[in-house]
Structure formats: C-alpha cells, structure tokens
Request: fold
Amino acid sequence: MSDRRLRELLEGVRDGSCDVDSAVGRLRHMPFEDLGFAKVDHHRELRHGMPEVVLGQGKTVAEVRAISAKLLERSPNLLVTRATEAMFQAVQELDGHAEFFPRSRAIRVWGDRQERGKAKIAVVCAGTSDIAVAEEAVVTAEVMGNAVETVYDVGVAGIHRLLHRLDRLNSARVVICCAGMEGALPSAVGGLVSVPVIAVPTSVGYGASFNGLSALLGMLNSCSSNVSVVNIDNGFGAAYVATLINRL
Amino acid sequence: MSDRRLRELLEGVRDGSCDVDSAVGRLRHMPFEDLGFAKVDHHRELRHGMPEVVLGQGKTVAEVRAISAKLLERSPNLLVTRATEAMFQAVQELDGHAEFFPRSRAIRVWGDRQERGKAKIAVVCAGTSDIAVAEEAVVTAEVMGNAVETVYDVGVAGIHRLLHRLDRLNSARVVICCAGMEGALPSAVGGLVSVPVIAVPTSVGYGASFNGLSALLGMLNSCSSNVSVVNIDNGFGAAYVATLINRL
Amino acid sequence: MSDRRLRELLEGVRDGSCDVDSAVGRLRHMPFEDLGFAKVDHHRELRHGMPEVVLGQGKTVAEVRAISAKLLERSPNLLVTRATEAMFQAVQELDGHAEFFPRSRAIRVWGDRQERGKAKIAVVCAGTSDIAVAEEAVVTAEVMGNAVETVYDVGVAGIHRLLHRLDRLNSARVVICCAGMEGALPSAVGGLVSVPVIAVPTSVGYGASFNGLSALLGMLNSCSSNVSVVNIDNGFGAAYVATLINRL
Amino acid sequence: MSDRRLRELLEGVRDGSCDVDSAVGRLRHMPFEDLGFAKVDHHRELRHGMPEVVLGQGKTVAEVRAISAKLLERSPNLLVTRATEAMFQAVQELDGHAEFFPRSRAIRVWGDRQERGKAKIAVVCAGTSDIAVAEEAVVTAEVMGNAVETVYDVGVAGIHRLLHRLDRLNSARVVICCAGMEGALPSAVGGLVSVPVIAVPTSVGYGASFNGLSALLGMLNSCSSNVSVVNIDNGFGAAYVATLINRL
Amino acid sequence: MSDRRLRELLEGVRDGSCDVDSAVGRLRHMPFEDLGFAKVDHHRELRHGMPEVVLGQGKTVAEVRAISAKLLERSPNLLVTRATEAMFQAVQELDGHAEFFPRSRAIRVWGDRQERGKAKIAVVCAGTSDIAVAEEAVVTAEVMGNAVETVYDVGVAGIHRLLHRLDRLNSARVVICCAGMEGALPSAVGGLVSVPVIAVPTSVGYGASFNGLSALLGMLNSCSSNVSVVNIDNGFGAAYVATLINRL
Amino acid sequence: MSDRRLRELLEGVRDGSCDVDSAVGRLRHMPFEDLGFAKVDHHRELRHGMPEVVLGQGKTVAEVRAISAKLLERSPNLLVTRATEAMFQAVQELDGHAEFFPRSRAIRVWGDRQERGKAKIAVVCAGTSDIAVAEEAVVTAEVMGNAVETVYDVGVAGIHRLLHRLDRLNSARVVICCAGMEGALPSAVGGLVSVPVIAVPTSVGYGASFNGLSALLGMLNSCSSNVSVVNIDNGFGAAYVATLINRL
Amino acid sequence: MSDRRLRELLEGVRDGSCDVDSAVGRLRHMPFEDLGFAKVDHHRELRHGMPEVVLGQGKTVAEVRAISAKLLERSPNLLVTRATEAMFQAVQELDGHAEFFPRSRAIRVWGDRQERGKAKIAVVCAGTSDIAVAEEAVVTAEVMGNAVETVYDVGVAGIHRLLHRLDRLNSARVVICCAGMEGALPSAVGGLVSVPVIAVPTSVGYGASFNGLSALLGMLNSCSSNVSVVNIDNGFGAAYVATLINRL
Amino acid sequence: MSDRRLRELLEGVRDGSCDVDSAVGRLRHMPFEDLGFAKVDHHRELRHGMPEVVLGQGKTVAEVRAISAKLLERSPNLLVTRATEAMFQAVQELDGHAEFFPRSRAIRVWGDRQERGKAKIAVVCAGTSDIAVAEEAVVTAEVMGNAVETVYDVGVAGIHRLLHRLDRLNSARVVICCAGMEGALPSAVGGLVSVPVIAVPTSVGYGASFNGLSALLGMLNSCSSNVSVVNIDNGFGAAYVATLINRL
Reply:
C-alpha cells in the first residue's frame, strides 16, 4: 500500500466515508509489502554504511558496467568481486580512479576513505598461494572503512614466523585468517590472540585437499574456541563479518 | 628459564662473574619457554575473564570431579559441557549451587553473575529439537557474563513467526542461530539484522541431513554476508565467539 | 498491532484526535507482525484442511501427550509420526480410538474420515522391507482425507509383478513410490503412468546403500520426467505433497 | 503383433484354418509387445499432450537437426534443451519461428500456444545467477501449455522481497522454486503457499556449495512439508512435473 | 488370462459366438499378465534350479518360520541369510537337518546335494575377519549345487601364502574373492588365474576403511581385467553369480 | 634362474662338482623368478587367447605407435582403448585395416575373426548417450572372438522397449548392461534373464549423478542377484569378463 | 617342495637315476611354494625381531587365548591390540606378568625388555582424549624394543605448551604425533623437528570431524614435508613404522 | 631482539645502568622472536642439508626466476616442482646446467652431487602412468643426496614382475611406492621388505578412482604394518621423508 493509498483510506475514516470496522478490515488484508518494507530494508543498508558490492561472476561485462554506473551515482565507493580484466576496463571508463587487483580479481572504487572501524583488522595467511583470498579480504575491509594489518606467509610449519608477528596480531580487534591445505593456521592464531578469528579456508592445495574441503573441515574442528568459519575462498564474506565486529 | 635462573644469570653479569658475551650466548640458546610464556598465556586467560570450562565427553566422573574441584578453588564460575547426570552429582557435592541442564547436558556453577558484555546476545533456533544446542549456547553465554535473549521455534517454513520477534533480534549485539535440517534460518536472520550472526548447524534431522552435514553446508553457503559458522552442535563455541564480540 | 490497538488508532482519526499524517506515520513504523500475520497463517492452515501432525522423535512421552491433548480438543484427527509404544499408550488414554502402526511407528486418531481428495493415491513399494515407509505414507494419506491404493512388493527385478498391477497404478491421480537399495522403482513406475510420481528413497539395504544415499541419488537421476523426490524414509512428506496434489 | 496380424490369426480361427490349440500356442509365445503395448505407450504420450523434447547435450548438430525435422512433421511445438547456438541455427532453418534462449540454452518452437493447465505455474528463483535454470523451467512450462508467473531475485537474505510478491505466489496452482548456495528458498516459499512446491537446486555457488550438493541437501531436508525435489539444474524436469499437476 | 479363459475366447471366435473385432478388442485390453507371464517367470526360477532363499534381516522370527515352512514344502533345500539364532531354532523345528552358521548368520537345509556346477568354485579371503563373508558365499554356493574349494588367510601382505595355493585357485572355474581394508586381493588373484573373479568387499577394517568403502573402491579400480564386483559383505550375491557361471 | 643356469647346476650335481647339500642351498636361495615364472605368465596370456590391448590414455602418439608396431608383429588383432584420432592415424600407417570408433575412442585391428565364445554376448544400454561405453564393450568383445548382439535405448522409463527385445536378451550367454543416471537397467535386465549380467555404470548424467557415482551405487545395490559391477565407463573390462565367461 | 623331496631329487641326479633334463622339467613345474618360501618369510619375521602381535577385534576370547598360548611358547613378548577385559583375564592366566591398558585396550607381555632402537621415539598428542591412541603407540613401541618419550596435551591452540617441550621432541629419532579434530599438530611438530614424523589421525571430535576424517585430511595436506600418515586411530601401525626407522 | 640490543641490555646490567629487576622485566616481555629464532630456524635448515625447493604451481615465471636466482646464490642445488616449460627456460638462463623433467614437471640444478644417505632409496611404481609421480620422487631424492634404485611397472596384477625385482627392493633402506587405481602395491611391497615403505597414491585412473581417492584409502588401510602414506601425487613429500630416514 503506497503512501497515497494509505492516506486516502485514513482520510476516508476521518471524513466518515469509511467506517472504522471496514478500515480495520482493509488494513488487515492489505498486502503488507505495500506498507513500505523495502524502505525499511533500504534503511538497514544505510545503517550498515556498507558500500555497494557487485558479484562479477556469472554476469556479463555490460551488466557489471550498468550496475556499477547506477551504484556509483549514489555512492563514492564500489566493490566488484570475482571480476575480469574486461569488467575492470568497463568500470574504469565510469570512474578513472577504479583499481584492479588481478590476484583476487577485485575492482575497487575507493572515494570515501573515512575510517569507520574502532580498531585494526588483521588479515593473516598461511602460504603465498593463499594471498589471492587474503587480498580479497583486505580490499573489502579497506573499502568498508577499516584499517588493515597484513601478516602473510606464516604457516604452522614454521611457527616462529607467526610468533614473530605476535604484536601485529595483538593490535587487531578481529583477525581474518586464510589457509589452504590442512587449514591449521586459525587454530594456532586463535590460541595466540584474545579476539574473534574469522577463518577462511582456501582451495589452495592438491590431491586430498579436495579443493578446500580439507582446510574447511580442519577449521570447523578447530580446538581454539574463538574461531568461526566462512565458505571456501570467501575473503569477501570474512571481511564483511569482520567489519561488522570492528564497528561495534 | 625460571625467574630465579634468569635473575642469577643477570646477577652474574652485574657481578662480573659472567661476561656479556657468554651471557648473550646462554640467553640465545636457552629454551625460550623458560622465559615465562606459560605466564603470558596465563595472562591471556585472565584477560579474557572467561570461566574455566571442562569438556565432560571422554572423561570419567572421577576426572571431571577432580578437575572441577581444582578449578572451583580459583574461580566462582564453572562450566562442564557434554556431561552426564553422574558427573553432575559429583560436581554438586563440590558446590551445592551447581545446576544441571539435561537437554544440553551442561553443568554450571554460576557464582559470579556480573555482566561483562556490552549488550545482549540473541540465541535463535529453528525447531524444538534444536533447543538442546541452543541451550548449551545460552548456558555458556550467561556464565561468561552476557545477558541473553532467546527466540525459539522460528523456522523459515513459518517466516511470520520470525518476523514477529524482529524487535528481540534487533536488540542484540550479536546473534547465535541454531538450526538443523536445511539450516536456512541464519540466512533469513542474517538478512533481518545488521550485526554478526554466528550459525550453529545441529545434527537434528534424518536421512539426507547426514547428521548435520546438510545444515552445515547450507550455512557455509549462506547468501547473507554477516554469517559465520562453527562446528555441528557446537553451541559452546558459538557462545564463546559471541562473548568475545559482545565484550569488544 | 492487535485489533484493539488498530481500532483505537482509526477511531482517533475519525474523532480528529489523531491527524492523518501522524496516523500514516504510526502505521508505517508499526511492527508489521502486529497486523495479525499469525492469523493469516492460521487461515492458511485451515484452508489446507490438514489434521495436526506431531513428530514424536525427540520428544518425551509427556510432551507428546500434552500436545496431543491440546490438538484433539480442536480436531477429530491426529497423527503422531516416529512415535513409540509408550507414546501410543499415552495417546490412547486421551482417545480410545487411537491406532498404532508398529512398523511405521505412527499413532493415528482418525475421527473425521471424509474424503477430500479428488481421486485415489497409489502407494507403491519395492520390497517387503520398504513397507514401513510405505505404511507411514498410507496412514498419513488416509488421515488427510485420501482414498489409498497399495501396490507392494513390485521391485524392478521382477518387472512382471509391476505390470500385473498396472490397472491399480493407472487408477491413481498421484503415485507415491518407496524403494531402497538401487531406488529404481520410480523410474519404472514413472514410465508406466501419466501422473506425478513422488519418490521416497528408503534406508533399506546394506553396504554401498549407505543408509539410503544410493536410492536417493538413483531417484534424483531418474530418467522418467514425472518423478520428484523427498527425503530418505520420509513417507509422511510424500503423502503430504500427494494430498495437496490430490485436492487440486 | 499389429492389429492386422492379430486379426488374421483370429480370422484363421474363425475360418477353421487355424485350430484353437495352435492359436493358444501362438498367442502364448508371441512377444507381448506385438499386442500393441508400443501403441499404449504412444497413447500415453498423446494423452499427456506433451510436445516432443530433445536433449541437446551429447548429440551432434546434425543429429539434433534430423530429430527435430522428424518431430516438427507431427507436432507444432518443439523443445531442445541444453542446446548450442549452432543447433539453434540448424533448427531455425527448419522452422523460422524457432526461438533461442542463450541463458538456459533452450531452443523452442511454440506453434500451438493453447493453454492446457488449469491455472498458473509460478517460477521463483533466489538470485540472478539462478535465472538460467528458472528460464529452462519457464520455457518448458510455456511450451507445454501453461501460463507462467515469474518471481525472480527473492532470496531468503531479503525476506521482504519475497513477501512483496506473496500475491503472485498465491495465484499459482503449483510453484517451481530454483535456488543455489544454501537452497533455503523452497522452505520459505513452502511456508507461504498452500500448493505443491517443486524445488530445483542449482549449481550456482562456489566452495562448499559443491556444484549444487549443498542446495540439494538443503531442499531434501526442507522443514516445509509441501516441497519435493528434482535433480540439480533440472528446470525441465520441474516444469514437466508441474505441468502434470497443473493439468489435473 | 489363464489358458482356460484364452481357450474359451478362441473357441468363441471359432464358434462364431464372438466376432473377430470384439476378440481383437478383448485381447488388446486384457491385462497382459494374464497371458501367463507369471508362469514364464516361474519357469525362469525352475530353469535356474536355485533353491529358495530368504533374507532374514528385517523379518520377524514368525515371518521367517512361516515362509520357510511354505518353501520347504516344495523344495528340499533352503537358505536363510542374515538370520538370528532364534530364527534357526524356528527353522530347526520345521526340519531337523537344518544347519546354522553363526559366523555368517546363515541357516541352511541341504537336502538335495546333487552337484550342478561344471567345476569347482574357489572362495578366497584375505584375513580371518573376512571369513564371515566368505562363509556366506561357501554356504550359498554349496546349497546351489557347487563343489567349493576354500583358500583362506592369503592377504597380499604375505603374497607367498597366496602363491602356495596357486594350484587350488587354478582348479576353479570361477573365483570368489573376499577382502576388507584395502581390498587388494582380487587384483593379485586376478593376475594369477585365467577365470572370472567375483570380488566381494567386506566391511572389515576401521578408520578410513569407512565400513568397506575403501575395499569397494579398490576392487572397482582393479588393474586385473577379469574382476567384477558385488556389494559390500554380499557373499550371497557373489555365490549366486558364480553359480550361474559355473553352470554354463 | 634361466634354463641354462639351472642345467649347469644340475650337471654339476651329476658330475659331482657340486654336492647335494650346496645344490639344495643354492636352489633354496635362488631368486625364484629365475625359475621361469615370466614364462608361466606368458603361457597364461596365450591360454587366454586374448589379443594385446593398449590403453591409449596417458601415452603419446609415438608411444602408442611403437607399442602397436611391436604387438602387431606377433598378433593379428590389436585394440587401443581411449585413443585419439592422431593415434589412429599412426596405427593406420602400421596396418591399413585398422578401424577407428570415434564415439568410444577405440582403435581396432581385427585380422583374426575366429569365434572363440560358446554363444553370444548381449550388450544392452539405457540411453543414446550410453552408447559410447557400450561401443567400447562391443568392439572389445568382438576382437576377443565373441558374437555380439546389441540392444540399445531400452531405459527403464520405457520398460516395454526392453520387453520387446526379450528374445535377444535370452539368446545371450552373458549380458553386458551399460547405464548412467540412476543405473536401474541392470536390475530390470537381471530379472528378465537367467545368465550373468555385467553392469557398467556410465558417467552420463548431470547434477546429482556425480559423474557416474549414482549409477555405480545403484548397480552395486541391485536387487537382482545375478548382477556384478565394473568401474564407471569401463566397457572394456565388462567385455573382458564377459569373454572369459563366454569361453567357459 | 620340502627339503627332503628336493634332496631326493638332487641325489637322483647325482646317482644318475634321474637325468638332468627331467630334473630341470620337474623343478620347472614344481609348485614354487614347495621351495620353502614360507621359510623365507619366516626369516623375514625373525630378522625384524618384532614380537608377535594379535588383533583382538573380531576374535573370541577363546581364540585370543589359544593364539596367545601358542605365541608365548616361542616369544617372551606378546601384544594383543583392541582387546577386552575378558581377553586380558584369559591371557593373564597364561602369563601372570601380562599387563592391561584399558584406555588403549592393549594387553602386553613384556618379558624381553632389551632396547633395540638406536634412540628414543617421541609420542606426542594434542588433547587428553587422544591419549588412548597415543598409549597404543607407546605400548607397542616399548614392547618392540624402543625407549619412548611422551609429550601429551600440546595442541596447537596453546602453541607455547608445545614449544616448552621442544627439547624432548629434539631428543627423538622419530616422532609419532596423534591428533583428532583439525589434526594440525603434526604440521606444527614437523616444522620444529628435523626427523620423520608419523602422523596418526584420531577419531576424537564431533560433528564435522566425521570420525577422524577431518584430522586425516588435515595430516595428508600437511605443509610440513617430513610428515607421513597412517590410518585413523592406528597407534599400533605408527609405532611399527617408527620402530623400523629407529632400528636403521 | 637482535644481538646488538641484547648486548646493550646486558652491558647496562654490567655497568649498573640497568638493575637486575628491570632487566628481568625487559627480558620477560621482549618479543621472543627477537632472540633470534629465525636464526635457529635457519640452522635447522642447514642441519637438514636439504637444498632449497620452490613450488612452481601458483607462481608466475618472474616469481620463480627471482626466487631461484636468490637461492642459487647460496646453494649449488635447486629444485622447482610443478613447474612449466617457461619456468625452466627462465631458470636455465640463471644456470646452464639446469635440467627439466617434463613428465614430472620438475626443474633441477644438481651442482653438489655428494651422497648423504646411508644406503639406497628404492622408488617403485605400479603402472607406466604412475611414472610421472615416481619421477618427482626420484628427482627429489637424488638432488637431496640419495642413491636411487627404480623398480617400475610392477603392479599387483602381475605379481611375478614384482617378485623378479625382490633383490632391488631388498637392497634399499627405505622404499617409496607409487600407485594409482586400487593402490594395492604398497601392501604387496610392504609384505616383501623389512624397511619402511612410503606410499604415494597417484591420481591415475578413471571413474571410481575419484582422482586418487581410491588409491589413498587403499594405502591408509594397508594390511602391511610398515606402510605410511603421503598426499595424492606427492612424490616430493615421499622423497623428503625417505631422505630423512636414509640419513639417520
């Protein structure tokens, strides 16, 4: 029920052209969506203060360009995940400041760089091959208004490398931890910090890594109680959750 | 290296009975754990302010009793998860205020009820069979110093029941969401709130639920970006993560 | 918003004590659940004309008894699935006409036997061990107001037995087809009839049947296009879907 | 045994040129298919009133062209699923009115547009990436004589979008519901409508979606009892089942 | 249609009391099973010369007793697989010569000991724990009229033990090979003999044997081309196939 | 120990240059393979009368050419499975009579066409897409000296098509049965014939067929006791087993 | 061929009663097992110097007693794995020095305590629940003649505890590492030591640990290159491999 | 803490400018990594005497070139695994003695050929397709200072071929055993030798080999107790473990 129709109904009540009983009945049976829930939802998005995000995968270059153009009209920040080089060129035509991150395949327009998080987010990863996923988390966290600290190449097979960076880990309000293969890093990191750890299994590995299943199961079974897990290779999702925590 | 041994070494340096070079050498080759990392770790636990927690599963009644006795000496709060009735009786002899929660099989001594969280934690569950897991989350969250709001029996097949409780959900700083079968609830809840959602798949279901695998996969693939996941039936872990978030 | 509160608001508008603008605003921001969606949902249940159903599994005898008592107050029919002998005795005390079906572990009170389906539902099963699941479908379909035709023990290894019963199959408006092991029966049945076939994989089998997984996969891959599938051992669900179809 | 041959045999009996014993013998040992079962089968197809359908996958362009030519001789409608652009060009040469749907890779000749269904079929999908599968369902349902209502992009993470379209859902006699990732949509839709819901898991997603396995398991475990499931990405099959239901 | 009814129809045609057209019609619409397909099927069983077999699993003692009584009326041999001690006592009351094999849980009445196979069947097994499955194969093969040679405890980890028995293997017309754990034995045996090898994976093992899955996959991937496989623990099925081969 | 060396040793014994004790010792410790087991093995191959077979997959064109050249020197028949067009051209240069079967990717030189089997092998397949695998079985069975009868496109969804061909099935001494998707055909065929059925699951299908896993599990769980199974898409292996049976 | 028979043959050659040609022939065609390969095998066992080991699982008490009695006649050491209390009592009657380890369910007679390993074997485990498996490794390693150093309760979530014990780890020639849940410990240990690490996944955990699968996959994907893996819960196997390494 | 900083602190203690208490405090809270653990780690690598290894997969040619250049400065040996032809050309420009192994995709610079192992490592493989993985093991083992003996094409289907090479197997101090398909070879080899066997499952096979899963499970369930397992296709890891064993 649009504003106009609701107003007409109430005016009818006021005018006496519609009695209370029938007004109750009409309100009762009105499709509730007409009461403006989309607006409520819109408010929720505004409340989050999140930039608009486009999933490039499964879209054409034209679609990405069209959606991006529309979003850039109302937001200074834009993120396109799982994008292609061609999508980047299309977005760059819309906004010359667009950046492309080939490893993580992310396109970013980062006009509004105001920090909204309360502290830093640390993004940790095990091996150099996990950096693609970590980078998606970093790019996302930054464009959503977080200061980010990266701690790369600190797999559990060389635990001293991780211990070397303990200060960086301890300066963060939330830690994102990306690892493939056995996915053991979040357990080790979780035991060293006292903040929430968002674990991201990566599809890095071969054979019995089964495209990230091994790392996923490892993280779900972590003996560190401060670890929760997102989908395989989902650097974006980890950064989204971390952003919400960092703004609390 | 205990305090004493380190002190002796330094006194030797001060006294001249040990020259700097050999002191450097001895420090260099000392097992670093002697430098008191256990204490650091101990500090970390104190910093968390978490009560001691015992996993009952795989332990004998005597073991649970002994550990509980030791822990109750230094902490007014105690949690034993996955416990038995017999374990409860043993703990009750130690502390008459011990409570037992048969559904979730948790034993709790809740002497210090000071609230340490910044706001409420909402614990949501889909069906009545999921309450066992939700209860473990509630009992844990409470004993760790959080105010808890429960929203039970709001599965996605009756979405209006969930919408009815939107206010309760929106009053929480973090939401724990337990569901078995298709595990769809966190996606729906995640779309309605603007705070982190910790999803707990439960082993409730039969046939192709494969003891919680179905719910687990569903939650990992959630289309709501504010969802992260813990292990199947891990109400304790969800409450632990939620507590850390609620204290930030 | 209860009826009373809505009525007060509208009376305020009529009386002029509340102007239209503020009434629009209050309606706009009212929690929509207060508009009576539970009632809408209630209507939906009435519209279905389905009897109340209780899932016995995971409930205590006392809980089943209490719920059943409440339901029997407002409905002449009751179904408790996955029940125990003890649950049956409790329900029997409430209603002496209660029946128990040990094979399928179903309790039924069947007071209102009016037929509501347009035609018959055929329930087919492959081996004698599948009868437990088939029986759950039969008991459910009957108590929901359908005439049921059973065609048992017609596995594909003896295809002539199935062909013998073709007339019974062809007299049905919808066919429920239960099979374990290789789950091939729905494909054969689907090729012989021109109505929808609801396939129910059963956990009957051993070894590589993996508790019904083999039958489930077989049915999902059926080369007969008129087959859709429900969960392993879910005779109830199949009958529910079949009832909806039979009432169309 | 064709009509003619059977008639000749019986005329032989009548004429005395064939005695009863040898007629019994010949009938007994005749392949029963000669008694016209092929025709029965043919009748079944006619009774269904379904257009001919060709599965493009695994066939050459020449094969698709040849089969299509033959089918178009006796039917004004044709559907080729999982086809290629090259197949479309071949079919278009046969019939200039052929349409191609690149997203769902379907070729359709829709000469006879008579509506045979009793009411509308609603085709619902969760995300924009699921539209490919939904489109296959739409194209199939239309060419089989159904009015179709589409409700796209109504994933459970934005439940209000789904509620907005409740009227469209409620106008349908059967609902097809396509979703990838966690596959939660059919549960939510199933709770809102009182008609059968055919759930189609899609292979949309990544990581732990395991090419649609996650959505498939979710749908099989749906807490909405009016949901049955077809194979991953099987929009065609869902539309076939829905058509049968809509004609009842 | 029994012989009698068919004969009456034809006599009517001969007599003129039934014209050809209506005879065609009646034959066309007669359920074809009446043409004696059940009898054909019956003949097939007779042709096999197989004794009647009862699957004990999932049946009550009373049911097994009743079926056995009926079968023993018309056959001197009986096999009940996956039976219990109680079932054995019931069968023993019917026939004092009944034997029970506790390891394989088989009941056998072996009245007719005529050899029907052309040569011997060798039953080979890897470890002592596999003997339960091997015994089911032996008991079955014997009661179906085969001479059986057993070669037990010849796992591939002690290949010389297998080579020791090469003469026994080479005297067989078909080899049944039971193995759990890695299931490697059929490959080794298959390379040593020039006859068909029926491989039976057993559920013997622990951990990553996954209840026989490991052995099953191993056997399906055998590098010996003369190996085919039956279900996990299916000694009966292997003996059935071997019997058919041995009678050729 | 070659013939020569063994002879020398024995001549030493005869001549007295080697005493019995040391001869026993040398024989005892001689590597037994020198006693000519390779020859035994060679005899086994000759006894089988099988042509040489080359697995093309994983080999270069040059390797296939070299091996084929060597094999063709001593055998009039050659089979290369899973070959490429380029491999065929290389083999054709060696022997102008070489045939290529693109669907099954088999190369065959069939010089010696003598029939060695006792009767026919029937090769049955469910859908047209399964023909590639069936063809591998046919090509293999023929080149190994069997008469082959093919029965294609007789899936269980149109059971009458299978019944139409019952005579062909019944004329065979062993049946090879290829099917993808739900893999139900071997159960139906197994119930209709009284000879061994070798089931070949094919990777035909999509979604929950999981590349043939669905068909494989279905066949392993067949309710027809005369069915044994080979690896997915292994038409060659099925023909090999069938050949051994057909020669018995 | 026994020694005697071989000797007779050679004496015949020496005596001239058997000519060389026929002796070659007889040796050529003798079943090679008669040449004493069992003895060779027996030698191999003696060379290993391993005590006799009995797998209790799947054997009756009587069988375990009988086998143990026989083994104790010729060896001062005995190990029965996966045994029961009743088996222990039976063995204790045979040898009063028998020990029982209830956690690991091992029975040990340890008469000969001579150390045969070159250095120590370290047995490390992650949590207290893993001790059952670790104990099986310890008991096995000891009875096979190794000095054993245990390092328990050093999970990666408290990495400092592991570092505390670095000296113990570094004193070992081979490390056995038992862990359930995420199975991360071998990666951390492997990075700290420069000797082979034998990883034993345990079935400790719940939910997505899938009875040890999670730990198994984690260990197979270890980023530490000095890790190899044995079956889930296979403490015995790990100790066996470690013993072989420690004796090199 | 660098040497310099530690020295300054100690000099302060000696000089009296820093008292013992504050020195203890500073040492207690110093990040321990500053104490030179990286150096310790460096020492560990030197102690191993292992050449530097680069994983080519997931790196660019430029990255491989840069890393290789740096490593070649301080080591005469270099190994790049899972490399490309282009990577080889880049490395060859750095060092003209670089070799490329196309089958295993390994690049090797083998300047220092000193043997460091105590005896030979045997590398065994089942089929010719497994040679790629075996070659990676050989190339790795050689460059790490081991003499290597290869025993190829000795699958269990032709067990005599394996027995022929028993002497080669028995001359090794550790055996690496590569096999795909059913992965049975390590069990057979393990039974023939008295040294540790490192089993490498390969992804060779099709259908139910599931990319090496079948071989992996087979090897984990080996009935030979001297077998441990590494990841699928991990020839490098097997050689690394074998090298450590061979140096003991």
Remarks:
- The interface with chain B takes residues 126-127, 155-159, 163, 180-184, 187-188, 190-192, 205, 207-210, 213-215, 217-224 of chain D (CB under 8 Å).
- The longest helix of chain D spans residues 61-74.
- The two ends of chain D are 33 Å apart (CA to CA).
